[in-house]
Specification:
With about 160 residues, this protein is an alpha+beta fold. The chain folds into 2 domains: about 20-75, no CATH class; about 80-135, no CATH class. The chain has 8 helices and 5 strands. A 3-stranded antiparallel beta sheet has the order 3-2-4, sandwiched between helices. Strand 2 (about 20-25) and strand 3 form a beta hairpin. Helix 2 (about 35-45) crosses helix 3 (about 55-70) and helix 5 runs antiparallel to helix 6 (about 95-105). The longest helix has 22 residues, at about 125-145. The termini are close together.
Length: about 160
């Protein structure tokens, strides 16, 4: 039976990604795994892993499995998610014209993310922002899962059923 993946689990993996990490899902089991660039590089180079700590040896072995198998798909990366566009869409969704325009001005140029966070804090919009962002990430995850013909549920704990 095909795995049923939890949207919450996929979103959680996508949410913690950085430029140094990639997340993968096993299309048959629904297993999610996050690997560092270092672990993936070590697995690709196929040099001895004796110099790595025990916990990292396990991850490198897992990375070898991921890169050598068609069973794993890479989840959308930070580059695929376009956090700035989510932020911009949130700004445009604010009903108050003055606040909306102020937020849109804050997200222009260098330091946009910091200014945006400060602005939503000063307007008391943090809860709305995090809810909006969560919904946007869920939509990205659902679109990706459907494109890759993976079954999913919004209920946590049904993975692998």
């Amino acid at each position: 039976m095909k795995a049923i993946v939890s949207i919450k689990d996929v979103v959680n993996e996508m949410d913690v990604l950085s430029e140094e990490h990639s997340a993968f899902i096993n299309r048959h089991t629904g297993e999610l795994i996050t690997l560092s660039i270092e672990e993936l590089s070590a697995a690709e180079e196929d040099n001895g892993i004796d110099d790595y700590p025990e916990w990292q040896k396990e991850m490198i072995i897992k990375a070898k499995e991921v890169i050598s198998s068609d069973d794993y798909l890479q989840l959308p990366s930070k580059f695929d998610i376009h956090e700035y566009h989510i932020m911009e869409d949130f700004c445009c969704s604010v009903m108050d014209d003055e606040i909306r325009e102020g937020l849109l001005n804050k997200i222009m140029g260098r330091g946009a993310f910091r200014r945006f966070k400060d602005a939503i804090n000063s307007h008391g919009l943090e809860e709305e922002w995090y809810s909006f962002r969560q919904e946007a990430l869920e939509k990205i995850a659902i679109d990706w899962l459907e494109r890759n013909e993976l079954s999913y549920t919004k209920d946590k704990g049904l993975k692998g059923l």
